[in-house]
Amino acid sequence: MQVLFSKTFTKSYKKLDEKIKIAFGKRLEIFLQNEFDPILRNHMLKGDLEEVRSISITGDFRAHYICLETKDYYFVAIGSHSELYDK
Asked: pLDDT digits over 5-58, tens only?
């Protein structure tokens, strides 16, 4: 299993406050142990994003990923709730 990051994810990640980056690192560790740990609030999205899953990073920040057929995880977006959903 590998964790991969899209260019969009990487670009957004670089702009994040250091506290959010640290929180993501901690959540990623939990994710790698158990992607469905309740603290992550992992859930499938709906509509145009129905193949995408979301995990909670902080109260307002989320990371979106896709589980590939190879069983790798491809993170496609990170941002605040309003940045990701109010488009």
From this structure: 999 999 999 999 999 999 999 999 999 999 999 999 999 999 888 899 999 999
* Length in residues, the chain: 87
- pTM (predicted TM-score): 0.92
Which residue matches tokens 């979106």? 64
Domain 3-81 has CATH 3.30.2310.20: yes
Residue 1 makes CB contacts below 8 A (sequence gap 6+) with: 71, 72, 73
Closest CA to 76 of 13, 30, 16: 13
In whole angstroms, what is the distance from residue 40 CA to residue 61 CA? Answer: 11
